[in-house]
Specification:
- The chain is an alpha+beta fold.
- It is 29% helix and 28% strand.
- It contains 8 helices and 10 strands.
- The strands form 2 sheets. Strands 4-10-9-8-7-6-5 form a 7-stranded antiparallel sheet. A 3-stranded antiparallel sheet has the order 1-3-2.
- α2 crosses α3 and α3 crosses α7.
- The N and C termini lie far apart (43 Å).
Length: 246
């Protein structure tokens, strides 16, 4: 299975169902690459699962040359029921990220909503042709959609709340197979808040919640948006706009 490559777009983030990582580690310690090869899932997905288990104290890691090797943590799991304990853990259905912007919160809000298309990664494209523009309709009931160079459009989010300059909430109308969907009952939602830390500094908090509403395979949506090429990349590109404007 090929590792993730920048520029592959969103398709690589829609992972299939996979066997338990813990089962493999119960056999012997392994590096991320070995787990990805054995489970036939992407390295980013493996890394995300390992982080959750490490934070829960279920696995440990150590450097081995240029790699990090992961093993089960005897102090964190029962010796005869490690896999059952992991399977009993509630899966995280919320992804949270934040960033600090050196700008007043009113301006931070305006740049996020009016220049969303400037920081959305161009490779994140559900259309069959290159994106000409991304439109962020600034009103409740509006859409976020991509318009391709051939004129076709993909509406992938709906505006649920628009409260300048404090927050916006929009749906995530993209399936675990990384295709657009129209059933509002099976979509997650994203809230972005703009909080003034000082008159010239703003903390931007992003929460992507209700991820389990996507149904079977929803974990791949969580893994994708939480990965470095997901919301962290959006926020980094957003922050860069303020540096460019100096």
């Amino acid at each position: 299975m090929a590792a993730y490559r920048a520029g592959d777009g969103w398709d690589v983030l829609a992972d299939p169902s996979r066997r338990s990582i813990v089962t493999c580690l119960a056999d012997r310690p392994r590096a991320v690459g070995e787990l990805a090869d054995d489970l036939a899932i992407s390295r980013p997905a493996v890394s995300q699962h390992l982080k959750v288990r490490k934070d829960a104290g279920l696995v440990t890691d150590e450097a081995a040359g240029t790699r990090r090797v992961y093993r089960l943590n005897p102090a964190g799991v029962d010796g005869n029921a490690s896999e059952e304990k992991v399977m009993a853990e509630p899966a995280a259905v919320v992804v949270q990220r934040q960033i600090v912007i050196e700008a007043p919160f009113e301006r931070a809000f305006v740049v996020f909503t009016e220049r969303f298309g400037d920081f959305k990664p161009p490779g994140h494209n559900l259309l069959g042709t290159p994106i000409a523009e991304t439109v962020f309709e600034r009103k409740v009931g509006g859409y976020i959609y991509d318009r391709a160079t051939d004129g076709t459009e993909c509406r992938w989010a709906r505006m649920l709340a628009y409260e300048p300059p404090d927050r916006v909430v929009f749906s995530w109308d993209i399936s675990p197979q990384w295709q657009g969907k129209t059933d509002s009952g099976n979509t997650s939602e994203v809230e972005v808040r703009f909080i003034a830390e000082t008159p010239h500094r703003t903390r931007v908090e992003l929460e992507h919640r209700h991820l389990d509403r996507h149904g079977p395979g929803w974990e791949s949506v969580r893994d994708g948006v939480a990965h470095d090429e997901g919301w962290p990349l959006y926020l980094a590109r957003y922050a860069a706009l303020f540096t460019q404007d100096l």
